[in-house]
Design a protein that fits this description.
By secondary structure, this protein is of the alpha+beta class. It has 14 helices and 23 strands. The strands form 6 sheets. A 4-stranded mixed beta sheet has the order 21-22-1-23. Bound molecules: ligand EPZ. Residues 22-23, 26, 93, 119, 121-126, 160, 162-165, 190, 307-308, 330-331, 373-374, 401 line the site of ligand EPZ.
């Protein structure tokens, strides 16, 4: 297993360009199942999770081809409507094939994704709302068996603005009879991006980015038409990670390739702590800040503070002046970075879903272990600040969602290297 050796304290300088967003790319790749023609995507990030969903799509019969920065997918023939446990268990977002398969083929057999390190992650909101659209859903031997001659447009109200459920239902609605309205829909920028991709194919929908999304269903023989390759939005979570890297190391860093509006809650929180930014059209410049002060935050669905930046923010709070509190409201077990950060000298105590952080002036390098994707990023950030060389193990978690992280940080001047294991 590969590991990273990171020597701190690092100083960074220069510009980093984030890749296209993992959490926009995955639903768009799943949406390829809707179309019986070739579709083209641009700048798809080279991530393990993207590789996994492509393997899953290929196992169903989708063909894919890469030419330069264009990835072409063709789902004109999908003989296998089963999403196998062996693949789904490695990446829960595989459940996003359920909506498109059911919409276009009238049936699907998708392994229940099961939990993961950060929580149980049920899919009840996906399933109960597909049933409201007329689907027959059974659970048998760990698989979701879904069938329906043709889904019916319906008025749906989600019990929680689930990102994945919103995406599955948007895709299911494409071939449903009539109009589907999703109330209490997730508002994340990745939802907006899926909507813009579907619209670019000719799907009629509106309201993305608000809590009410409307999708007009079409007949299965509808002729879609893609004018040009679609490029997913820049990765706001990756951007937040590099912005915090700049603040951890009191460096001036320009983070390009994402729209600042997609990260407003994080930027405003950092400004409250004393950080200063120059907002650009497609990025920000973060300036060195002598001393940042602790704050109290809680994670929430967009436009609230994103749970995917909670671990990285905690690493920064560990070296701020004074106390901070983070309450994790989205996932039930998303503090696994805490014991590892404590090994580096961080002062954190947990009380239920709240973490109390006491700022400390310095951290010390240590051997640490990655437990999940964003926790891994937090360990890298702390290691950039810590005195000495940290040995960060099990970085396969990191490779799921960060493209060329060590190369991008090396280019900024960080002392970081990957040791292949
Ligand atoms: C997406 O996961 C992201 N993944 C996650 O990013 C992100 O943390 C999450 O949204 C929240 O923003 C992708 O987009 C691939 P949810 P998803 O459905 O869709 C509960 C990362 O680090 N829930 O909004 O699974 C669920 O248990 C990953 O890139 C139900 O109870 O998130 C959780 O507590 C991690 N029933 C909460 O809602 C359901 O049917 C949020 O889940 C669905 C969800």
């Amino acid at each position: 297993m590969d590991k990273l050796l990171v020597t701190g304290p690092s100083h960074l300088k220069g510009q980093v360009v984030v890749s296209c967003a993992k959490n926009a790319t995955l639903p768009i790749l799943a949406a390829s199942l809707l179309f019986d023609q070739e579709i083209h995507l641009k700048d798809v990030p080279k991530l393990n999770d993207v590789h996994t969903i492509l393997k899953l799509l290929q196992s169903m019969g989708v063909t894919s081809q890469e030419k330069g920065d264009i990835l072409s997918l063709n789902a004109s023939s999908v003989p296998n409507l089963v999403a196998d446990y062996a693949l789904v268990k490695t990446m829960r977002a595989s459940v996003l094939v359920l909506g498109p398969l059911l919409a276009r083929f009238g049936k699907a057999k998708v392994s229940l994704p099961g939990g993961c390190a950060i929580g149980a992650r049920p899919v009840d909101i996906h399933l109960t709302n597909l049933e409201k659209m007329g689907a027959k859903i059974e659970i048998d031997k760990g698989y979701i068996l879904a069938s329906c001659e043709r889904l019916k447009g319906a008025s749906l109200t989600l019990s929680f603005p689930s990102v994945g459920a919103t995406e599955n239902l948007m895709m299911a609605a494409v071939f449903a009879e009539g109009l589907t309205v999703i109330e209490n829909a997730a508002r994340e920028p990745e939802i907006t991006d899926l909507a813009q991709f579907l619209r670019s194919m000719g799907v009629e929908l509106k309201g993305e980015g608000t809590s009410r999304i409307e999708i007009q269903g079409v007949e299965r023989n509808f002729r879609f038409h893609q004018k040009s390759p679609y490029r997913p939005i820049g990765d706001r979570i990756e951007a937040a990670t590099y912005i915090i890297a700049g603040l951890m190391t009191q460096s001036e860093v320009e983070v390009q390739g994402f729209a600042p509006w997609t990260l407003e809650a994080v930027l405003e929180t950092l400004e409250k702590m004393g950080a200063r930014f120059k907002r650009l059209e497609n990025g920000v410049i973060v300036f060195p800040a002598a001393k940042l002060k602790g704050v109290v935050i809680e994670t929430a669905p967009f436009p609230g503070f994103p749970t995917d930046v909670q671990a990285q923010m905690m690493a920064l709070m560990c070296i701020c002046d004074g106390q901070s509190i983070i309450t994790e409201q989205i996932f039930e077990n998303r503090f696994m970075h805490v014991p590892e950060l404590i090994r580096m000298g961080c002062k954190i105590t947990l009380k239920g879903n709240a973490a109390l952080i006491e700022g400390t002036p310095s951290l010390s390098a240590a051997p640490v272990m990655c437990t999940d994707l964003r926790a891994s990023a937090a360990l890298v950030l702390a290691a950039l600040k810590a005195e000495g060389t940290s040995d960060i193990q099990r970085i396969y978690h990191l490779d799921r969602g960060y493209e060329n992280l060590e190369l991008k940080l090396q280019k900024l001047g960080a002392k970081i290297e990957r040791v292949r294991g």
